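User: Hey, my collaborator sent me this sequence without any context and asked if I could get a structure. I don't really work with proteins. Can you help?
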Amino acid sequence: MEEKLDNKPYVLITNDDGIRSPGIIALAEALQPFCDLLIVAPRNQQTNMGRGALSGNNIGAIEKKVMKINNHYHEAYAVNGSPAQSVAHAILELANRKIDFCVSGVNYGENLGLAYTCSGTLGACFEADSVGIPSIAFSRKIPMEHQRSDEFAVLDWEEEKKHIQNIFVNVMKNGFPNGVRILNVNFPVSINATTEVRVTKQAYMNYGKYVYPDKRDINRGHRLEWTFNDKLNDAPKDSDIYAVHFDEVISVTPLKSTMSVDSKCYYAMKSNKIIET
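Assistant: No problem. I've predicted the 3D structure and written it out in structure-token form, which is a compact way to encode the shape of the chain:
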């Protein structure tokens, strides 16, 4: 894609897999022709951190790195903290002007259904949104054994980068729909230039589930196994889960910045005397 934007936006690139992830390099390479980039990510793997924060010694320590982006060297910053903390340090310490967008990913593993509450990829976006920065999260479906790891599977990113460019430039030209603050984008296992990009709804169901191990020493503990939810067939056909898992198309899910109900529900609760004022 050769189209150039007249005024380059200042874009914060981050993730939850950590500064060493090939996914963040792919994301930066996709956006670099169109943006001025600020690359700030956790120093270590921070999958499933949501919008949480780390505590302990040296939290917030920042290490300057150098990344090779499209055959050019670019400064990047590794933060000893969570994805949300990385975004906060980027905004408060490292940005040299107002950040126009936060783009998080590309995550090793899909973020579908109710996973948005625990996803560090989306947690970074929620942190940016809390200070008024519109955000996009990109995630890629891969086998579960390659997720949540410091050993990153070798993947080809070329098709994903083309779609990232198309989605981002369209957002730059047209903006987000009214009331939308975050786009949650998920790629299926395999895509090409003609793969459908589908606007979806978030499925109200868990994409994965914990499985109790056969043997467990209750005193020493045991990590619960994680596998697909066995009820995925119940996912609505207009949902993010159905799009990525069954139809194998690219899902773009618009998210609002609030979980609260609308005024009609509020007044219905009052009239039903569920709450008293």
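In plain terms: Confidence is low (pLDDT under 50) at residues 1-5. You can pass these tokens on to your collaborator as they are.
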